[in-house]
């Protein structure tokens, strides 16, 4: 029991600088180390049992990296900006693969716990997982297929331009027809 109290004392010392927990402790009269351990347990249960964990994974995979990317842009730190650009390339690649395999991955036990671990490994500056994946796997693949990717993007742009032009023409035709019908209706009312 003394070991547990010792661990809680260490946690309390580390949490002394967290203003939010100090305020929460004062309002609830619950020690901040209990609040943080309880929050970690709740978080773990959510991850392990899949209660809204898909959204949680996406939020974790997006919020912190987006914030750090913004800071890197604002501070003009090229090394940090490069790190986050690499993360976004890996995240995008992972997300594209996940879209097509999600119906299979859903059935894998603890998939979202593994996904969250993977995203944390990719994003954390201590592990630089995204850089490892990019340098060892994606970089060569993307360079080999760069012309195919460029051609696919050009094709997608042409298709999008055609769809937009067709939609614009259709909306114009519908608007003209509605205007014509409204005018005809007004004329019919005047004749009565």
Features:
192 residues, mainly alpha, 0% strand, extended
- Count of helical segments? 8
Question: How far apart, in Å, are the first and last alpha carbons?
Answer: 95 Å
The description of the largest β-sheet is:
none
Q: What general form does the structure show?
A: extended
How large is the share of residues in beta strands?
Answer: under 5%
Binned, the helix content reads over 70%
Q: Rounded to an integer, what's the Rg over CA atoms?
A: 27 Å
User: What is the number of E strands?
Assistant: 0
Q: What is the N-to-C succession of helices and strands?
A: HHHHHHHH
Note poorly predicted spans.
none
Class computed from helices, strands and strand pairing: mainly alpha
**Quaternary structure annotation:** single chain
Average pLDDT, to the nearest integer? 86
What topology does this entry show?
Layout: H1 2-15, H2 19-28, H3 32-49, H4 53-75, H5 78-105, H6 111-123, H7 129-144, H8 146-191
Helix pairs in contact: 4-5, 4-6, 5-6, 5-7, 6-7
């Amino acid at each position: 029991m003394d070991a547990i109290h010792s661990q809680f004392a260490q946690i309390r010392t580390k949490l002394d600088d967290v203003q939010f927990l100090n305020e929460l402790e004062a309002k609830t009269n619950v020690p901040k180390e209990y609040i943080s351990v309880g929050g970690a347990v709740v978080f773990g249960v959510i991850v392990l049992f899949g209660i809204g964990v898909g959204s949680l994974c996406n939020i974790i995979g997006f919020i912190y990296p987006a914030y750090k990317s913004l800071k890197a842009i604002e501070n003009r730190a090229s090394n940090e900006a490069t790190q986050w650009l690499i993360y976004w390339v890996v995240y995008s690649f992972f997300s594209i693969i996940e879209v097509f395999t999600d119906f299979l991955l859903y059935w894998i036990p603890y998939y979202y716990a593994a996904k969250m671990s993977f995203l944390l490994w990719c994003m954390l500056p201590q592990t630089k997982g995204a850089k490892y994946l990019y340098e060892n796997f994606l970089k060569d693949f993307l360079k080999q297929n760069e012309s195919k990717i460029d051609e696919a993007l050009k094709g997608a742009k042409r298709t999008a331009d055609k769809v937009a032009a067709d939609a614009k023409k259709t909306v114009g035709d519908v608007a003209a027809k509605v205007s014509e019908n409204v005018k005809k209706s007004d004329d019919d009312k005047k004749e009565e």
